């Protein structure tokens, strides 16, 4: 579900915010800490993904069309992490 908040639109799954616009060319994705730990070797190699202060979130810099594919993949992981 997409919700329009004071900070801008967010995407939620079962009431949990999993995707939000962080401003400029950055989107933040709530993957959960266990998912980030599993994906850590790949995320470290990806220059488009950065850690966020909250360890359950990552920031994805959107510079080019392939970044959209990365965002879709990470959003899919986030959805799976938040749906029983």
TrEMBL record:
<dbReference type="InterPro" id="IPR040841">
    <property type="entry name" value="Luciferase_dom"/>
</dbReference>
<feature type="domain" description="Luciferase">
    <location>
        <begin position="15"/>
        <end position="78"/>
    </location>
</feature>
<protein>
    <recommendedName>
        <fullName>Luciferase domain-containing protein</fullName>
    </recommendedName>
</protein>
<dbReference type="Pfam" id="PF17648">
    <property type="entry name" value="Luciferase"/>
</dbReference>
């Amino acid at each position: 579900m997409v919700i329009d908040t004071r900070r801008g639109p967010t995407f939620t799954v079962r009431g949990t915010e999993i995707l939000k616009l962080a401003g400029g060319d950055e989107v933040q994705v709530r993957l959960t800490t266990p998912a980030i730990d599993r994906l850590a070797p790949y995320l470290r190699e990806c220059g488009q993904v950065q850690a966020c202060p909250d360890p359950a979130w990552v920031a994805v810099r959107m510079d080019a069309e392939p970044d959209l594919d990365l965002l879709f993949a990470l959003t899919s992981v986030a959805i799976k992490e938040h749906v029983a």
